[in-house]
Each structure stands twice: as structure tokens, then as C-alpha cells.
Specification:
The protein is of the alpha+beta class and 459 residues long. It has helices at 24-33, 64-73, 82-92, 101-111, 117-121, 124-139, 149-166, 171-187, 192-195, 200-206, 216-231, 240-246, 258-271, 274-289, 291-305, 319-331, 363-366, 386-390, 410-425; strands at 3-4, 10-11, 48-53, 56-61, 78-80, 146-148, 338-342, 346-348, 351-353, 358-361, 428-432, 440-442, 446-448, 453-458. It has a single domain (3-458), classed as Cytochrome p450 (Orthogonal Bundle). The protein starts with a strand and ends with a strand. The chain binds protoporphyrin IX containing FE.
Length: 459
């Protein structure tokens, strides 16, 4: 719950956790319920934390130089962790997010052009068009209506990725995914067996809830759309699906098989909407708690846009809009934890990391580290001015990850988040519904545990 302390500075929503070090039983409960609550607030100040769960060892690395070593300089020695695969693959299949080695390299090369900033700029009209659909819906509600902004942002970004991927033939898929994704995140949580890397059959034997099946309807809808596209291959040459089907490897000239395209489509759908929705949701929350920052945003929108719909070319002038989103992803990074496993032993900050250990890089902690950020618990978008950002170590701020496995959708996400924020903030001010509890909950992504009930105020 948010509150104002005696200095007038709002206290930001934080995870609730039992004080001090967690017992084994508490840890097992908390890791499933809210990963963020396994970290103590003072962990943000550490460079390196060693944890042990029975015989499994986990190392949290929280220092920019060491993070650079793992994600970039020595990236070939690391794979995505077993636990990441166990949680994501039942739903996503083997797409870019979880594949490794030569397969990953080839797919990344083939897909990169579909996500470059020039291609992404072409999706701007879809993004603002769908944000305006939301405004039309809100305009039809009585003044001061309460809405769940988390759900509204999810619906909006899902609609956008669906249109960008399939053009207009896909709107029913939005309902299917909306139902399935929430269920997937709440059902698919790591068990003790997963955390210990016990064989998956053992883990399944003792798990009462299964991932398999939750996303079947979504998979079938994607298959139906792909089959339809197979019959008229040139119908919509500009959408993301058409680009993936037509894409060729710059080194070998080869493309992707139908099954590979299907897996990538499912992965991009899932990776490509929820994270951006969370980034926007937390931005609305933070703006509602900081009227002075909100006023600066409004002033910039009036100056640059004067009421009209934003375009891609406006983004370069919407500096404060960008800074507000970047600061929001510092405090509430949608991808709150990245996990890796070393193939061979490594040495990090003087500590030996054995092969197969779990290495966690936790933007949630790194982005609050007092030696990197002045007043880390305050929302201050100005720290993302170009000069101040350039003066910080590159690996101090990693909402999109870093190194070769950096988010392929980063340009898409920033384009989308800025255009949606600019479109909506010109027309509405959102205020937290008094009494609505706000607690960040780390499941696969960082979401507000109880949604985000806000009051709509027309500007
Ligand atoms: C604010 C929004 C987003 C955030 C915070 C975010 C964050 C991330 C992060 C941290 C990673 C790297 C994970 C790791 O290293 O373990 C990643 C990878 C990925 N993201 Fe995003 N993402 C966002 C939006 C998107 C969008 C819009 C798309 C697609 C349209 C997308 C598709 C992907 C894919 C396919 C990967 C895997 C890349 C690879 O391994 O080569 N993401 N994302």
C-alpha cells in the first residue's frame, strides 16, 4: 500500500515478507508466492550473495562489472537456467527465449531484421490506433469510474502484438490469450523439485498443477492462423508473421521451418505483450504518486503534441515520456530476475562458481543498489537524462538484459510504451483508488498482486 511519509515523499509499494532471514519452510512458500520477497531490502547493497537450498547452490551477482562478465564477455560459458526452461517451455515451446547454441544463433540472425528500429517504426499507427480504442472505451464510462489499469494495459499490448503479428485476422486470439496467460503464471510456479533440479518426472509426480494444457487453445488458434496464411502467402506482406515466414539467414540463405515459425510466433506473443503492459502499469502507478513528475509529463505532451495523436517521429522530442518509463522500469523491472548456469567453472568477484550452479542477476536489486543510484527508493525520471545515463556504468541498468541475449523486442517495447503513455496521458489522469492495496509480486514477470484499481479523471 502506498503512503506519504512525514517528509511528503511517497513510500513506494514493496513486497511483504517475514523479517530477517527466511527459514527453509518460509523460503519454499515465499519463492512460489512472490520471488521478490525472498530478497531482503539490504541485499540491494551487496555485490555477491551465496545461497544454498539443500545441495543446490545459487549465487546472486549484483555488481555491474561482474554482470558484464556473465552476460557479455564470458556469455559463451553460460546457458539459460534449467529452471527457466522448466517454467517457460511447456507453454512456449522451444522459441528464441529458451533455445541455445547454434539453433539460437541461427534464429536470432534470421529474426533480427524484423525487430530493427526502422521496421518497428512501421507499427506506430497500429500502436496509437489501439491506444485510441481504449480511450473510446473509457470515454463511454461515467467520469471518475474505477478501472483495473493492469488489465487494461494487458489488453492493449496484447491487441497490439496480435495486430502487428497477424494483421486483422486475429482479434479472437486476444480473448484466448487473455484467459490463458493469467492462469499460466498463477499455476506454473517452481516446486522444490524444480529448485533442486530433480528429474522432471519426479517434479510432475508431486505437482498438483500442470502447465501442459493451459495454453493448448492458444496453440491451436496460432496453428489455424498459420494454416490460413499458408493458403494465401502474400495476403499481408508487411506483418510480423509474413516477415518471419519470408526471413532468410544472412549467412546461409536458409529460412525457418513451419514448426520453427510456429514456436517463434508463440514465444513472441507471450514475451511481447505482458512485460510492456507491466512497465506501463507501474508507470501509471508512479505518476499517480508523484503529481510534480506527472505535471512535467503533461507539459511536454502539450508542447510537442498539442492534443494530436503522437507519431513515430515525435518520439525523439518526448524525452520526459521516455525518462518516466525508464525510471519506472528501474524501480519495477518487468523482468525482475535473469537466471543462468555456467557450463564450465567460472570465477566471479573472487568466488568460484561450479558448473551447473544457478547464477541469478536480479534487476530488482541492481536497480536499487545505493552505490549506483542516489536516493534509490525515489521516483526521479531526471536520472535518465542523456547526460546522467551516459555517466553511469552500462551494466547498472538492464531492464532488457544485456549481451547477445538482450531482448530482441526492446525497440518495439519502447516505441509501444511511449506511444501508449503519450496517447492516454494527454486525455486522462489516473488516480489510485483509495484503499486499493498495491504490492509488487514477482512471478515470471513483476506484476501488481491485486491488479491496479485506478480512478479515471478526464483532463
Ligand atoms: C518492457 C518490455 C520488455 C521487457 C522489460 C523485456 C525484457 C526482456 C529481457 C530482460 C530479456 C532477456 C532475458 C535473459 O537474458 O534471460 C528478454 C528477451 C526476449 N524478449 Fe523481451 N522484454 C520486453 C518486451 C519484449 C517485446 C515487445 C518482445 C517481442 C515483440 C520481446 C521478445 C523477447 C524475446 C524473443 C527474447 C529472447 C531473446 C533471445 O534470447 O535472443 N520482449 N526480454
Amino acid at each position: 500500500m502506498s503512503a506519504i511519509d512525514t517528509s511528503g515523499i511517497p513510500t513506494l509499494a514493496a513486497p511483504r515478507r517475514p523479517p530477517g532471514r527466511l527459514t527453509f519452510r518460509q523460503f519454499l512458500r515465499v519463492v512460489r508466492e512472490n520471488t521478490l520477497a525472498t530478497y531482503r531490502p539490504e541485499d540491494a547493497g551487496e555485490d555477491f550473495i551465496a545461497r544454498r537450498l539443500l545441495w543446490r547452490r545459487t549465487f546472486i551477482v549484483n555488481e555491474p562489472g561482474a554482470i558484464r562478465h556473465i552476460l557479455l564477455d564470458n556469455a559463451d560459458n553460460y546457458t539459460k537456467s534449467e529452471i527457466t526452461r522448466r517454467i517457460l517451455e511447456p507453454g512456449l515451446g522451444r522459441g528464441l527465449l529458451t533455445s541455445e547454441g547454434e539453433t539460437w544463433r541461427r534464429h536470432r540472425r534470421i529474426m533480427a531484421p524484423a525487430f530493427d528500429p526502422r521496421t518497428v517504426a512501421g507499427y506506430a499507427p497500429i500502436m496509437t490506433g489501439i491506444a485510441e480504442n481504449l480511450l473510446a472505451k473509457w470515454d463511454a464510462l461515467p467520469e471518475q469510474s474505477a478501472v483495473d489499469v493492469a488489465a487494461a494495459m494487458m489488453h492493449t499490448t496484447l491487441h497490439i502484438i496480435s495486430r502487428a503479428m497477424f494483421s486483422s485476422d486475429s482479434d479472437e486470439i486476444v480473448d484466448v490469450v487473455e484467459r490463458d496467460v493469467g492462469e499460466y503464471q498463477t499455476n506454473v510456479r517452481p516446486s522444490l523439485f524444480d529448485l533442486l533440479h530433480a528429474p522432471q518426472w519426479l517434479s510432475r509426480l508431486f505437482s498438483t498443477r500442470h502447465a501442459a494444457g493451459i495454453l493448448d487453445e492458444f496453440g491451436s488458434s496460432v496453428d489455424a492462423l498459420l494454416t490460413a496464411r499458408g493458403h494465401e502467402p502474400d495476403a499481408e506482406p508487411k506483418d510480423l508473421l509474413a516477415r518471419l515466414i519470408a526471413a532468410r539467414d544472412s549467412e546461409t540463405g536458409g529460412g525457418m521451418t513451419a514448426q520453427e515459425v510456429r514456436n517463434q510466433v508463440v514465444t513472441i506473443f507471450m514475451a511481447g505483450h505482458e512485460t510492456t503492459a507491466q512497465a506501463l502499469t507501474w508507470t501509471w502507478y508512479l505518476l499517480s504518486q508523484h503529481p510534480a513528475a506527472e505535471a512535467k509529463l503533461h507539459a511536454e505532451l502539450t508542447n510537442v503534441l498539442a492534443g494530436r495523436t503522437p507519431r513515430h517521429d515525435d518520439l525523439a522530442d518526448l524525452d520526459y515520456t521516455r525518462m518516466a518509463i525508464e525510471e519506472s522500469m528501474r524501480l519495477y523491472p518487468p523482468a525482475h530476475t535473469l537466471a543462468r548456469e555456467p557450463i564450465g567453472a567460472d570465477e566471479v568477484l573472487g568466488h568460484r562458481i561450479p558448473p551447473g550452479a544457478t547464477v541469478l542477476i536480479v534487476p530488482w536489486l541492481l536497480h536499487r543498489k545505493p552505490s549506483l543510484w542516489e536516493r534509490p527508493d525515489r521516483f526521479e525520471p531526471e536520472r535518465f537524462s542523456r547526460e546522467r545515463a551516459a555517466a553511469r556504468p552500462r551494466f547498472a541498468y538492464i531492464p532488457f538484459g544485456a549481451g547477445p541475449r538482450i531482448c530482441i523486442g526492446a525497440a518495439f517495447a519502447m516505441e509501444e510504451a511511449m506511444l501508449i503513455l503519450a496517447t492516454i496521458a494527454q486525455r486522462y489522469r489516473l488516480r489510485l483508488n483509495p484503499g486499493h492495496p498495491v504490492e509488487p509480486q514477482g512471478l515470471i514477470t513483476l506484476r501488481p498482486r491485486y491488479g491496479l484499481q485506478m480512478i479515471l479523471q478526464r483532463r
